[in-house]
Amino acid sequence: MTPEQICLVQASFRDVLSIREEAATLFYGRLFATAPETRGLFADTDLRSQGRKLFAAIGMVVHALDAPASMIEKVKDLARRHVDYGVEDRHYALVGSALLWTLQVGLGEAFTPELREAWASAYHMLSGRMMDAAREVTQPPRDLVGLAASLPNRIELRPS
């Protein structure tokens, strides 16, 4: 992200915060409308509470954009927890699309092409880090991969 994009995202987030409850409703409505299969990920979730968590997480990221190292471990932890909820790589693009749509609707004319590009860049950076961390959870460690490759393809059982 460029310094200008960081400034754009951080400045616009103040406006987003003023409509965060409406934005959360818009976001989840759009996500479920465009990707109905994601509804199951939230089956036992209070969406109002989830919306507050969503915007708290977005706020943490937005405030740390100019010092991303300060948020990396928190983002990785968040991604690892999301694996347990059933989140897969393919969901990140769906969420990004719903987020950009929500910002466009919520901010209206203030959501310029430059601002859209800045938010898309921020989300791309975030989702990339999250997917990398999630893969650490879902893939066996390298030493186990090597061990598995060295084992025979078939184990024959012989009566004793």
Secondary-structure class: mainly alpha
Q: Helical stretch count?
A: 7
- Could you give a short account of the major beta sheet? none
Number of strands: 0
Ends apart, CA distance between termini: 65 Å
Identify the quaternary structure here. Answer: single chain
Poorly predicted runs of 5 or more residues: none
Strand/helix succession: HHHHHHH
Helix proportion of residues, in percent? over 70%
Which term fits the overall shape?
A: globular
Strand content: under 5%
Topology, element by element:
Elements (H helix, E strand, L loop, with lengths): L2 H16 L1 H15 L12 H17 L8 H14 L3 H19 L5 H26 L3 H9 L10
Helix pairs in contact: 1-3, 1-6, 2-3, 2-5, 4-6, 5-6
Question: How does this structure look, described?
Answer:
This protein has 160 residues and is mostly helical. Helix content is 72%, strand content 0%. It has seven helices and no strands. It has helices spanning 3-18, 20-34, 47-63, 72-85, 89-107, 113-138, 142-150. Helix 2 packs across helix 5 (89-107) and helix 4 (72-85) crosses helix 6 (113-138). The chain is globular and about 35 Å long.
Structure described in brief:
With 160 residues, this protein is mainly alpha-helical. It has helices at residues 3-18, 20-34, 47-63, 72-85, 89-107, 113-138, 142-150. Helix 4 (72-85) packs across helix 6 (113-138).
Quickly list its features.
single chain, mainly alpha, 160 residues
